[in-house]
Amino acid sequence: MAGSRTYANIDTMTGWETCSRCAGENGTGPATPHSVVYGVASPSIDGRSVQFTNSGTVPYSDAIWWKQLGANSGASHFVYDLYFYIKNPGAAQALEFDVNQSLGGRKYIFGTQCGVNDDHQWDVWGNGRWNKTGAGCSVKAYAWNHLTAQFARSNGTVRIIAITLNGATHYINRAYGSIGSGASEINVAFQSDQRGSHVRFPVWLDRVTLTYW
């Protein structure tokens, strides 16, 4: 579409930033051992996936990774498209997929979370908390799961439009406020949350793409 920009194969870009404490509840979770490996040949779709591993030793340990993509104050619509692979969904409390934009003193958090073994549905971020949508979320083991999430912003408001996982589309259509920020950025993020059993588990991402206009 006219005026759009696409960042393709973000998974092949090095320099993903990360933290564990900030990924926990209220940004004060436990320090969690975690890692990233670039250019993984298997499992992969195109021969180069990225592997994110949560190795926490404390129940419900979380880790988040994000990739900065510069800034564009004219962007107001976003499509986050990716494939992810997990061998042991039973180890995951939730898997989170986000886009963040900051401009003009505001931060827009387009947050989505699949409650794999939590509430078994899609939750979306707004008003400082996760909000249940009632839209079911089921993750396949030992297979590539295809996720597409659509977002928009306008007049200081975040809009979660739709989420599609493995061909099942849920029209969320939720709107929430933005928060204050002095940054200027666009980034994509992935977060893995462990269950109470704190079993180490990796997740692979491939063909990670962000399109905005």
Task: Furnish the topology, listing elements before pairings.
Elements: E1 5-7, E2 17-19, E3 34-40, E4 49-54, E5 62-68, E6 77-85, E7 92-103, E8 106-114, E9 121-126, E10 129-136, E11 144-154, E12 157-165, E13 168-177, E14 179-180, E15 185-194, E16 201-212
Antiparallel strand pairs: 1-16, 2-5, 3-4, 4-16, 5-15, 6-11, 6-16, 7-8, 7-15, 8-9, 8-14, 9-10, 11-12, 12-13
Describe this structure in words.
By secondary structure, the chain is mostly beta strands. It has a single domain (5-212), classed as Jelly Rolls (Sandwich). It is 0% helix and 58% strand. It has strands at 5-7, 17-19, 34-40, 49-54, 62-68, 77-85, 92-103, 106-114, 121-126, 129-136, 144-154, 157-165, 168-177, 179-180, 185-194, 201-212. Strand 8 (106-114) and strand 9 form a beta hairpin. The chain is globular. The N and C termini lie close together (8 Å).
CATH class: Mainly Beta
Helix share, percent? under 10%
- The biggest beta sheet, please? 8 strands, antiparallel
User: Strand fraction band?
Assistant: over 45%
Alpha carbon gyration radius: 16 Å
Mean pLDDT: 95
Are there runs of 5+ residues with pLDDT below 50, and where?
none
Number of strands: 16
Order of helices and strands: EEEEEEEEEEEEEEEE
Sheet/helix structural class: mainly beta
Question: What distance separates the N and C termini?
Answer: 8 Å
